Amino acid sequence: MMDVKKKKPIKISAENGVYSTPAWNTNNQIVVFKGDVQQFKDADASRPFRATADLVWFTAATEQNAQFITDGSDYSNPHFVANSNRLFLNHDGELVSMRLDGTDLQKHIKIDGITVYGSSYNENHLLADTPTAPKKTPSKASEIYKAPKGDYALAKINNDLYVVTVPLVGKDGVTVNVKDADKASFPAMKLTEFGGEFPSWGAEGNLVFWTLGNTLFTYNIPEAKLFKEELAREKKAEALLAAAEKESEDDEKKEEEEEEKKYTASEQQIEVKVNRAIPKGEVLIKNARIVSMKEDEIIENGWIHIINNRIAKVSASAISAGAKAHIIDAKGQTVVPGFVDTHAHMWPAWGLHKNHVWVYAANLAYGVTTTRDPQTATTDVLTYADMVEAGQIPGPRVYSTGPGVGFWGYNITSLKHAKNVLKQYSKYYNTKTIKMYLTGNRKHRQWIIEAAKEQELMPTTEGGLDFKLNITQILDGYPGHEHSFPIYPLYEDFTSFVAQSKTAYTPTLLVSYGGPWAENYFYATEDVQGDVKINRFTPKSELDTKSRRRNAGWFMKEEHVFEDHAVFVNDLVKAGGIAGVGSHGQLQGLGYHWELWSMQSGGLSNHNALKVATILGARAIGLEQDLGSIEEGKLADLVVLDKNPLDDIRNTNSVKWVIKNGTVYEAESLDQVHPQKVTQDYPWTQSAPGQSLPGVSKK
Predict the structure, then answer these.
(1) Strand order across the 433-437 sheet
(2) Is the pTM of this model over 0.85?
(3) Which residues are paired to 314 by β-bridges?
(4) Distances in whole angstroms, Cα of residue 608 to Cα of each of 313, 483, 597, 615, 646
(5) CA nearest 156: which of 116, 115, 94, 199?
(6) Neighbouring-strand partners of residue 217
(7) DSSP characters for 617-681?
(8) I need a labelling partner for 396 at 20 to 30 A (CA). Which of 54, 204, 221, 528 fits?
(9) What pLDDT digit, counting tens, does each position of 454-491 carry?
(10) Greatest CA span in the chain, whole angstroms?
């Protein structure tokens, strides 16, 4: 807590804990969720400690022990309102309240909204064989906040925000649907046109704030009401005038004009500028076999000169460099461009962020220098990507679509609506790309691709285990396809179709469609537990969960389908098409190489497999001008391999040095050796239990 008068912080918690989402009432009581410190440190997934958090309160005065309220597992978003000591919370889409001793639970209002499309085959987002879709339930509010004053509640449903009147009813509350806010059972209004995050009230209950990316929105409720009333008066006056003059107007045109007149929130962009991490200095690699990916170029005993973060020169003969240049003698080694993962799900801790991200470190240590996550679930990735760019944490380049434009969040009703939804990504998140994730029928998908083209966004798609869906998405111009086409063999006509469309194909064979996942083959045939490097870069709990016991994890080799799916990758590349390696986040770092080897098993030459891993992957995500090959002027992303992958594709996992953006890392440890020496510290590394622990033998 901050003492404003004395301008110094005051510690009020006597116990260690991870405290989050504090709420302060007028009686100087602060309510927070209290989680376990060690559990937060040890958590390797995206949702650390939350399920076991307690709801507690403090008095804003001196250091003290927390007062227990209740188990917080089922609650969220604690807050107070004026002239009340009751604590308001969210529970399963409902606004509830209780006393600070956890008693007298009361229900106030449950708010739900649109009914979204589903994701299984017989639902109406696909070309269904059945005439009707299964019955759906409306989307629940993920956040509800009672206004600090007055009878309103602020609700977030999917990606939109609403203000709803909370009626005075019994202890069981009431349910209000705001699919059409103007027709809700109690007065309500929709605030957003293209989504909002982190909503909150102003102190008087008249203003609502939210953000998108780095933009703060302010919605003035009294102003919005006056605007609506004035608009109604204008319409009435226009109708009377038209009737008096017997004018006729085109109804559709009139409706479009009326839609343009809406109250909108004010916007304020918040800029926080931090320098990008660009190394200063020179790196000289000499005596290397260079597989440049510039056509079929291979330079034996080649030299590469890097200045700061760009490749200055590539030559088959000696290059001069400054006296302070960092020298890598790569005699007997092979240099390839940094690997590109076009489907990398790297989900760090959401909510409360960590300063160390093991999923990023693992990928970089295995030579993956560029990633694209096509569906991040939350917007936390935007902050983490900035941390990598600023050099605060080691990791590959982190590009993403942000949260998918998915069936779970939208029911797009028009081209105009599609354009509004995509503004989140083109204007506020600035992702440059989206994932159209089974958002509806073909008309919906066409609206989205048209809006994406207008806003210069590059979409990719979800395969969805539906070949007819896949074909129509390509026909409609989508430039990316995620996951394998679910049938084989695929013939020349289809190969030519995909190749000529230039749709980038990322098959993610580790999670193959139509048969056992390829990752099961590798877990069954590789010694993952005995791999020192993967143990260094993967928390023990994560690795043990994935590799010690696997449900349905072993199959006869002939049952696996990844080699059959990989045949199409070979055909596509030979036909001039685009393919990328996507590890799907199955096993961070090493999983990338498993995916590459799986793709090569269908007949790709080793050189073409490396092209898929580098230049074609860069082309798939629109970055081939700067990445994917070893050429003068391009960004210095390189991997130095101890063994030649042209001899054996499995030699891609012999990474000695990783150079990302001109910074040089030792691959086994990820210690930085240029431009400064930095020894990495891994807080996720968990050693065996010590001998001092109870129950551990001292023999």
Answers:
(1) 405-406, 433-437, 458-461
(2) yes
(3) 304
(4) 24, 20, 12, 10, 10
(5) 199
(6) 210, 267
(7) HHHHTT-TTTSSS--TTSB--EEEESS-TTT-GGGGG-EEEEEETTEEEETTTTEEEESS-B---
(8) 528
(9) 999 999 999 998 999 999 999 999 999 999 999 999 99
(10) 103
On whether the CB atoms of residues 308 and 278 are closer than 8 A, the answer is: yes
Nearest to 137 by CA among 172, 112, 109: 112
Contact 486, 462 (CB under 8 A): no
Q: Where are the alpha helices (DSSP H) in 18-97?
A: 37-42
Give residues with Cβ within 8 angstroms of 426, minimum separation 6: 455, 456, 457
Distance CA 387, CA 380 (A): 11
Q: Which residue has the tokens 């009020």?
A: 12
Amino acid (1-letter code) at residue 430? N
Cα 201 to Cα 156: distance, rounded to the nearest angstrom: 13
pLDDT at residue 129 greater than cutoff 50: no
Q: How far apart are CA 360 and CA 373, in angstroms?
A: 12
For residue 129, give the H/E element and its range: none
Interhelix angle 415-423/442-454, nearest 10 degrees: 50
Q: What does the block give as tokens for 72?
A: 């917080």
Cα 659 to chain centroid distance, Å, stands at 25
Cα–Cα distance between 467 and 461 in angstroms, integer? 13
φ and ψ of 300, to 5 deg? -85, 140
Contact 206, 198 (CB under 8 A): no
Predicted pLDDT at 127: 43
Inter-residue contact 69 to 83 (CB < 8 Å)? no
- Burial (Cβ within 10 Å: 0-12, 13-18, ≥19) of residue 45: middle
- What residues contact residue 567 under an 8 Å CB cut-off, 6+ apart? 488, 489, 490, 602, 603
Q: pLDDT by residue (tens digit) across 546-580?
A: 999 888 788 999 999 999 999 999 999 999 999 99
Element (H, E) at 163: strand 160-165
Cα 109 → chain centroid:
31
Strands 160-165 and 29-35: unpaired
CA-based torsion, 385, 484, 470, 615: positive or negative: positive
Q: Which residues are bridge partners to 311 per DSSP?
A: 306
SS (H, E, C) 309-344: CEEEEEECCCCCCCCCCEEEECCCCEEEECEEECCC
Count CB atoms within 10 A of the CB of residue 519.
24
Rounded Cα gap, residues 589 and 601, in angstroms: 19
Alpha helices by DSSP H, 32-71: 37-42
602-606 contacts: CB < 8 A, separation 24 or more?
602/563, 602/564, 602/565, 602/566, 602/567, 602/568, 602/569, 602/570, 603/566, 603/567, 603/570, 604/566, 604/569, 604/570, 604/573, 606/645, 606/646, 606/647, 606/648, 606/649
